[in-house]
Design a protein that fits this description.
- Residues 12-17 and 25-36 have low confidence and may be disordered.
- The chain has helices at 12-23, 57-78, 85-91, 107-119, 140-153, 163-168, 180-192, and strands at residues 2-5, 8-11, 82-84, 97-98, 103-104, 123-125, 132-135, 160-162, 196-199, 208-211.
- By secondary structure, the chain is of the alpha+beta class.
- It has a three-stranded antiparallel β-sheet, sandwiched between helices. Strands 8-10-9 form a three-stranded antiparallel β-sheet.
- Strand 4 (97-98) and strand 5 (103-104) form a beta hairpin.
- It starts with a strand and ends with a strand.
- Helix 1 crosses helix 2 and helix 2 crosses helix 4.
- It has two domains: 2-135, "Winged helix" DNA-binding domain. Chain C. Domain 1 (Arc Repressor Mutant, subunit A, Orthogonal Bundle); 140-211, Arc Repressor Mutant, subunit A, CATH 1.10.10.10.
- It contains seven helices and ten strands.
- The chain is elongated.
- Keywords: Protein transport, Transport.
- It comes from Lotharella oceanica.
- One of its GO terms (biological process) is protein transport to vacuole involved in ubiquitin-dependent protein catabolic process via the multivesicular body sorting pathway.
Length: 214
Amino acid sequence: DTIRAGGRVLCKAKALVLVHKSLKGLEIPSTMTDTKSTFSFPKFYDFPPFFTIQPVQKTRHKQLSIWVEFLRNYQKHTRSTSVEIVKAAADGGAPFGNPKIKRKLTADGIKTVLNEFCHQGYGVWADESHSICRTSWKKFEEWGTILYNWAKDNGQLGRICTLNEIRTENSSEEFHMMEPELLHAALKRMEKGGLAELYPGDTLDELGIKIVER
């Protein structure tokens, strides 16, 4: 049996020992920036198999969990909220590639990571073909709590406004100028929990919203 590491096919027994040793107990630091405010990449970023989606389920599960946390920290640091798969795959740079070791995720690999990112509640696909993903460093449930507290503290409970008004008219709030798809995803979580009512508009920005009292 074999396992892939970049372009090489390694003996599975030896490769799995290497991969598991690198991934076992691996934790992402709570902060990944240094005093110069430049992103500090973790050690596993220089590990070639990190950029090949592993076929063994147990290893793959651990790998994707690490990818999600790594991407969340990277997006938070760079304030990035969108990934275009074709562009990211062609670029070859961070976060999906490491030019220093000449390794990068394929387009399919990036999509696999982003699917897991969405599954864990940090992202949402912006198109039906799943070529563009909107990404967040907070879970949508967390954004829902922030939105509810904003409405409660500012007398907005029970009042109807549009998605565009929420995201553009509150410059002091974390959700100011948030990607419409991300804000919509957070509001849908609130609707599911009985904390919001949504009224369709001609466009996403015109979506009507009423945040209701618990």
